[in-house]
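The authors assume throughout that readers already know how a fold can be written as discrete tokens. Each protein is reduced to its one-letter sequence and a matching series of backbone shape codes. I therefore recommend that a typical entry be quoted early in the introduction. For illustration, here is how one protein appears when written out as sequence plus structure tokens:
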Amino acid sequence: MSLSEGSVRSMLATNLRRARSERGLSLSELSRRSKIGKATLSQLESGTGNPTIETVFSLSRVLEVPISDLLDARPAGELTVVRAADVEVLSGEGVDLRPLQRIESGDAVVELFDQQVRAGRRQESLGHVGTEHTIVQAGRLGVRVEGHEVELGPGDYVRFDASRPHSYLALDGDVRSVLLLQYRAEQRLHLSDPALGGGPCGSER
């Protein structure tokens, strides 16, 4: 997802309105379920908000859609090159994510991210749709899933049900890793359907 394809902010605004419409949720109800303020959601839908990892993953969990249905990553062509400088970073309390690609094959959808966990910081998640896969490239990463903790080094891999509460912690300096989120195709919304409309920015159903 490059800057030329539109910013994370503008794509989230469009897709959030459509996803909310598809689920038949008002801003007030989405706010209640996601624990995100109604004013913040209104700003996100109007394209003036500042989305964080925590916000996007919370919306993914409540709306039960893959992250890429909110960020609108593009499917791969015959040759796809994604330059680091062309990708916007989605930041959270302890993690910086760069969405690189969405891969669709049969009944599987995989989202590919470059992930950096900042030194000494923990990134918490209440859970979201999909199965999470992480491959550590550099550094030591602590992973906690519902109270179970493992430590990973370069080349190590972990897989878990992403709907469970989980967290990442950089144990010794920054950690560079590859994050893959795997979904079933039926978990995706058909956000390209013009019939979903979306209505005016910030409006409720």
